[in-house]
Amino acid sequence: MMKGFPDLPPIWWLGSIGIIYLSKWAVPRWHWQADVLSAPSTAVFYAALALIAWAAIWFWQRKTPIEPHHTPKTLIVEGPYRVSRNPIYLGLVMLTFASALGHGSLPGLVATVALWWILDRRFARIEEKMLVATFGDAAVAYLARSRRWI
């Protein structure tokens, strides 16, 4: 990683969105007419925004840092965290997927998978280890009963 690069999930997400827009210009053949996917992509887009907001509210309510690589002050297991340990990351992947569908972008679909992989390896797995180190058996129990993604 480049020194000084802000290694944050929203930055990686912006990169995935950038791929969709740049590829539409650079390789237009790798895009298809997406009119029929407009409604589904819009639904996924707004569902993703709602999921991200819902998950972020729990950080605010519990007064724990939302930034990755910061030690959490509380173990959040309520709300969307009952279903997914990473609802914000899931929402970012959903946003990229929705944009890829809406723009009819094959590179966007590849960027969606790449974003998921980066968020999983660079953030989610590391954060799980931090949860166990910070909260011990409570975190182990939570990890056992919840899914990393969905």
Comma- or semicolon-separated keywords:
150 residues; mainly alpha; elongated
Can you offer a commentary on this structure?
The protein is built from five helices and no strands. α1 packs antiparallel against α4, α3 runs antiparallel to α4 (106-135) and α4 (106-135) runs antiparallel to α5 (137-145). The two termini are 28 Å apart. It has one domain (35-145). The longest helix has 30 residues, at 106-135. The chain has 150 residues and is mainly alpha-helical.
Query: What series of H and E elements makes up the topology?
Result: HHHHH
What is the multimeric organization of the chains shown?
Answer: single chain
The Cα radius of gyration reads: 17 Å
Strand percent estimate: under 5%
Distance between the termini: 28 Å
Contiguous runs where pLDDT drops below 50 for at least 5 residues: none
| Whole-number total of structural domains | 1
Q: What general outline do the C-alpha atoms trace?
A: elongated
Helicity, as a percent range: 55-70%
Mean model confidence by pLDDT: 94
Number of strands: 0
What's the main sheet like?
A: none
Distinct helical segment count: 5
Find the structural class using helix and strand composition.
mainly alpha
